[in-house]
Amino acid sequence: MNTPIKIDFVSDVSCPWCVIGLKSLETALQRLQGEVQTEIHFQPFELNPDMPPEGQEINGHLSQKYGSTPEQMQQTREAIRLRGAAVGFEFSQGKRDHIYNTFDAHRLLHWAELEGPAGSQHALKMALFSAYFTEGLSPASHEVLLQKVSEVGLDPVRAQAVLDSDAFAAEVRQAEHFYTSHGIQSVPAIILNDQHLISGGQPPEVFEQALRQLASQSAK
To answer: How does DSSP classify residue 69?
Structure first.
């Protein structure tokens, strides 16, 4: 039985645990082929909404925001690298030296879901994750954003028009407010059928179990 399940994936493109969560979810869905039919909607969340376009040096940012020591940062990076490798994603070491503003990236992700072919938003999300975490590129750069738009087969001319305007700004802010006002304060937050929340970059088994349980309940 192919049980339909709606998935809202609340995340930021500069969140490493969001990459791990998404890749784990994808692995779980591969294991459940033929059992569930999912519809994934990527919802916006900004870890640093007040970050200027030029960004901030990453070590200084983490020290200022979380009080992290250099040793703690290195331990966290290594843990993230290993978790990423386990689900097939490369976190490059030494290429990322800044944290950036991601609002325009979220506007393009909103546009991709509204105007692009099926799967466009998912493809762009992964392209933006790879741009930042694997290639070390800035998700605030319009040049980078347009490059990734083209790579996933979306219209760069239309994307440029979106970036040159305030298109979808209100919609992104409204969505962000919706999730924060409903208690989402950290990401990834994965919401199944508007009711069941899975928080954090969980391993594939957690998603597989939750989806199987939901499919089983729906079948009754």
So the answer is: -
Q: What is the pLDDT of residues 91-117, one digit of tens each?
A: 998 889 999 999 999 999 999 999 999
What's the DSSP call for residue 7?
E
pLDDT of residue 1: 66
84 touches 19 (CB < 8 A): yes
CA 105 to each of CA 65, 124, 190: distance values in angstroms, whole numbers, following the listed order: 22, 9, 19
In the chain, what are the domains?
Answer: 3-219 (3.40.30.10)
Rounded Cα–Cα distance for residues 127 and 59 (Å)? 24
Does the pTM of the predicted model rise above 0.90? yes
d(CA 11, CA 124): 13
- Cα–Cα distance measured from residue 93 to residue 90, given in angstroms and rounded to the nearest whole number: 9
Tokens found for residue 166 = 């305030």
Closest among 15, 12, 4 to 42, alpha carbons compared = 12
* One-letter identity of residue 60: G
Ramachandran quadrant class, 17 (left: phi over 0; alpha: psi -120 to 50; beta: rest) = alpha
DSSP 32-57: TTTTEEEEEEEEE--S-TT--TT-EE
198-to-40, 102, 149, 185 alpha-carbon distances in Å: 14, 23, 29, 13
Distance CA 218, CA 193 (A): 11
